[in-house]
Model the fold of this input.
Amino acid sequence: MLKIYNSLSRKAEDFKPYDLRQVLMYTCGPTVYSYPTIGNYRTYILGDILLRTLKFNGYIVKYVMNLTDVGHLSGDNLGDADTGEDRVEKAALEEGKTAKEITDFYINAFMKDLAVLNISTPSKFTRATEYITQQIALIQQLEEKGYTYATKDGIYFDTAKFKNYGKLSGMSSEQILEGARVEPNPEKRNPADFALWKFSAEGTNRLQEWNSPWGIGFPGWHIECSAMAINELGESIDVHLGGEDLRMIHHQNEIAQSECATEKTFSKYWMHGAFLQVDGKRMGKSEGNAYTIEDVVGKGFKPLALRYFYFGAHYRTQQNFTWEALENAQNSLLKIYEILGSYKLQDGMTPSQKYRDLFEETINDDLNMPQALAVFWDLLKSSLPESEKLLTALELDKVLGIGLEQNVAYIVPSAVMDLAKTRDQYRKSGIWDKADKVRKELFQMGYVVEDKSDGTFRVKKQF
Ligand code: AMP
Ligand code: ZN
Done:
């Protein structure tokens, strides 16, 4: 039985989705105005591991991730999401591009990163700008029920009207805002109230703005997640994820909007990933340590080494990134490829049920990846037949996603194997120049051939 820690109850709970077979899952995705950092990817890996674990447990998963391409203001990091500049507008103006050019570019970059990190693609990505009508409809629902009020700069949610406000964060709205570093908007009835719709400033034209029953403007940051989750997954979902910084305000506000509109529990389980730090410090652009996947690759690392690195800490504890730790992770990963690459596959073997069960126990224990890796290494060190170890490793890789199929030497595509056989025939017939030509061809395809003393050969993927 899968157990996960539910931020709502602050307890590890048995995972029981509404439907016995299908899980409805939502993750807050990136704001697409710059390259995501290795910190952000720690959170997306958490989503990926949950998704893979659910599938390993036999569930079908409907998984939505949003792409925030409007309305995420810079003030949210200061504790007040309704102030500051729209990140996308700012980036577009700075780079002299349209908002769509900016968001398309960073969405594309995000997709490439997901692929190289082996992060499974959600069933659907939703872009906030494609759900404006739904966001307006949700705000209208809230308005009809009396949860909203207007100020000079927008339509706000009245948090005092939602009795469960603060349930997720465990804090009252005053406590939440106590640490805020900005002056709250004096027109707000309560400092925790938040914008559902913001008006475009008078006399200015934003790059992205829409008509609404309240005036021209754009949706607040929080409403997009409620509208997209409800429209794509329904009014009650099973599990909602994000980084720990979203728990106090963004997710609290998502709950308030959704539950006041639908009168149903929005998400049964809430999961939050702890932050990644760099060299023991907070990551940030101004700190110069907001590393991207490009930085990781630029230093000669495999993106999957980063994936492996993340598994070194439980998702609910902070993790510290150093280049040295990444190097250790890469060494371990290459060692795994090497060990498995030296094994031979025999017919008629099946994966080990014992190791599958041991592994499942660890991932089902609130996604305990450090322990799951320990089970994986125990498997490699065990005295099981090589072939059984290989097959089991491939089975466990359905969750780990460390690229065994692509990277373990013994798994060679048949076209490559055919070429290697041709080369072997040339070699055995003494046609050295042709044998050499094929060897070079294989090398260009990423494979090396080793001739053994007993006259056989082996094809290996090069690293
Ligand atoms: P953003 O693009 O800022 O909206 O963030 C996208 C996701 O990354 C959110 O779930 C954040 O909570 C998460 N996140 C931001 N910084 C970090 C970090 N240093 N470590 C882990 N997750 C992070
Ligand atoms: Zn969200």
User: Anything to note?
Assistant: Residues 278-407 form one domain. The first strand starts at residue 3 and ends at 6. The pocket of adenosine monophosphate (ligand 1) is lined by residues 28, 30-31, 39-40, 42-43, 242-243, 245-246, 273, 275-276, 283 (CB under 6 Å).
